[in-house]
Design goal:
This protein is mainly α and about 450 residues long. The chain is about 65% helix and about 5% strand. Strands 2-1-3-4 form a four-stranded parallel sheet, with helices on both faces. Helix 2 (about 50-60) packs across helix 6, helix 7 (about 145-155) crosses helix 8 (about 170-180) and helix 9 runs antiparallel to helix 10. The longest helix has about 100 residues, at about 190-285.
Length: about 450
């Protein structure tokens, strides 16, 4: 059957619902497209509510005013057609027809219209959001002309399931009273708008917080990257120092080996010279009376032997000195592998008055246990370094503890202002922190 509807009823999802009633989409047309009175009209006139029409229009990005004007023109055309052919046409609500297809079939049959519905025709409820319902009620309330058109449309439309075709013309005053009662819900629209604005404000606040959190995370990531680069540079410096020490040790070993070989050679030569001297002495004693020249040769060889012995003694002394230097190099190598790497140009700490005062403070404190420190860190014990001086210069930077009663890293983590100054944690606690009410963390205590 050919039908006429308000705008956007021939598109999904309403086209699917109408097709389920046996009204295919090609037979559906917009009432405003056939508004001329001389042209023929369809016997079944169906109108969607203003709220449903606005929802369909907004989904298709149609302007609000254009949607209201198109719907007003369409219902005016539908009502004009119904007035001209009241006996042979049927004006019904599209939502009511989809909700009660059997009532639509009975109303069409009462009008003498041929409407063949499928046997398994089920009712369909078209979903309309409360926002568009309140928007439609507000527009009707604000526009008197639209109020009259809506009231007249409801008066002319056949209420399916509640009346027959002969009762299609209702009392306009009663219809208007029902419409006014329905528009009272529009008073809630400002409350909903205020809630919507508050939700948008909260969303903006959350977005601002999210942006701040992202900036903070980026700054922390940059700090971590810088720290990693610093750590990598320190590791590279340590590797270079270890390599230089290893090369120096290899050179010292090579020189020592050469000196040993040289000493061995000189000893061999000395033995040879001694043997020759003995021979010459024997010959000198044997031929002393025979020739003065032989005696001079023996004297010369004796002097050469003496010089060789002096050279051997000197080389032996140099050998002992090199052995001592070699031992010192080995000890320095062991200390270097246990202590943190320093830049090549870094000068050793100067024994300033404050340095001596800090050492004295550590040695006199019950918080520093030198024997425990030696036993806890084998490299200190192996290097025979002073425990207090080692902790003051290196141990704290390595995160080592001066005793079981004081945790270095825990103190710095608890008081980041101390960490920023670079002061020795235990020295700071003894000289300042204890007086300031700061607490020390011992092994086993919560940090």
């Amino acid at each position: 059957m050919r039908i006429e509807t308000t705008p956007w009823c021939d598109e999904a999802p309403l086209a699917t619902y109408l097709e389920a009633l046996g009204l295919s989409q090609p037979d559906t047309q917009n009432a405003a497209d056939d508004a001329h009175p001389d042209r023929g009209g369809a016997p079944l006139l169906m109108h969607a509510s203003l709220a449903l029409t606005l929802q369909l229009a907004m989904e298709r990005e149609v302007l609000l005013e254009a949607a209201v004007d198109a719907w007003s023109e369409a219902i005016e055309a539908l009502m004009n057609r119904y007035r001209r052919r009241r006996a042979s046409s049927l004006l019904v609500s599209l939502e009511a027809a989809l909700a009660d297809p059997e009532a639509l079939g009975e109303a069409a049959e009462a009008k003498g219209l041929t409407l063949t519905l499928p046997k398994a025709c089920e009712s369909v409820t078209v979903p309309v959001t409360p926002f568009y319902q309140l928007l439609a009620e507000t527009l009707v309330q604000q526009r008197p002309a639209l109020q009259g058109a809506v009231a007249l449309l409801e008066a002319l439309s056949l209420p399916l399931g509640e009346a027959t075709a002969d009762d299609a013309v209702l009392d306009p005053a009663l219809a208007w009273q029902e419409q006014r009662e329905g528009l009272k819900a529009a008073a809630e629209l400002p409350v909903l708008r205020e809630a919507l604005e508050q939700a948008q404000s909260e969303q903006e606040t959350l977005q601002a917080r999210l942006g701040q959190a992202e900036e903070t995370a980026a700054e922390k990531a940059q700090v971590v990257t810088q720290q990693q680069a610093t750590l990598q540079a320190l590791q590279d410096d340590q590797a270079r120092v270890e390599q230089a020490l290893e090369e120096a040790t290899e050179r010292a070993d090579s020189q020592l080996q050469q000196l040993r070989q040289r000493v061995k050679t000189l000893e061999t030569e000395n033995e040879e010279h001694q043997q020759q001297a003995d021979i010459h002495q024997q010959r000198a004693q044997h031929y002393r009376q025979q020739t003065e020249t032989r005696h001079q040769d023996v004297q010369r060889y004796s002097e050469q032997a003496q010089a060789s012995r002096q050279e051997v003694a000197r080389l032996q002394t140099a050998l002992k000195q090199l052995q001592q230097e070699h031992g010192q190099l080995r000890k320095r190598l062991q200390q270097a592998t246990a202590l943190p790497a320093r830049p090549v140009n870094d000068e050793p700490p100067v024994a300033s008055p404050s340095h001596r005062e800090e050492l004295r403070c550590l040695r006199e404190s019950e918080w520093f246990d030198p024997e425990w420190y030696r036993q806890e860190y084998p490299d200190v014990r192996a290097s025979d370094a002073d425990p207090a001086e080692h902790y003051l210069l290196y141990g704290a930077r390595l995160g080592r503890n001066p005793s079981p009663h004081f945790l270095t890293d825990a103190y710095l983590q608890r008081y980041p202002d101390v960490a920023k100054t670079g002061a020795n944690p235990l020295v700071h606690y003894l000289l300042h922190g204890r007086a300031e009410g700061r607490e020390a963390v011992a092994v086993g205590e919560p940090q």
